[in-house]
Each structure stands twice: as structure tokens, then as C-alpha cells.
Design a protein that fits this description.
elongated
Length: 82
């Protein structure tokens, strides 16, 4: 088991990840005129959610516009609509 400071760092990272994900999915939904459930299902179906979970750290440092655009591009490459 890790030390208390290691656990705190992991907890902070998980909190940061969750905060970003709960921020960016509604941004995606607003951009593409979807409700949040539709956006979540679309992202899950076409790989955008996997991309988001895998690359959240890099995506959160960029302008939300570009993060949403990157997620849409991944979905498009996996069969989603433009």
C-alpha cells in the first residue's frame, strides 16, 4: 500500500479527472446541440469517451473548443457524424 502522500496525489488526480470530464461532456453537448445523455451515449458509442479518459490530462490544458473538436474528430473517425 502507498504512503499517505501518494494516496493524496492519486485522489487529487482522480478529482481533477472527474472535474474535467464533468465539465467537457456538457461543453460537447452544447456545441453539438445535444442533451448531456445524448452526448454521453454518442461519445461512448464512437470512442470519444475512451479518448477522453485516455488523454484527459493533455485535453484539459487546452482551450475547451479544441478538446471538443478533438473528441468529435475521434468520433467521426469511428463512424460518428460530422
Amino acid at each position: 500500500m502507498g504512503t499517505t502522500s501518494e494516496k493524496k496525489i492519486l485522489d487529487e488526480e482522480a478529482s481533477d479527472r472527474l472535474s474535467f470530464i464533468t465539465f467537457i461532456i456538457p461543453k460537447f453537448a452544447d456545441t453539438y446541440k445535444m442533451n448531456r445523455q445524448e452526448a454521453y451515449r454518442y461519445l461512448k458509442k464512437y470512442g470519444g469517451l475512451d479518448f477522453l479518459f485516455e488523454h484527459w490530462w493533455a485535453l484539459h490544458t487546452d482551450n475547451p473548443f479544441w478538446a471538443v473538436r478533438d473528441m468529435q474528430e475521434i468520433c467521426y473517425q469511428n463512424g460518428g457524424q460530422r
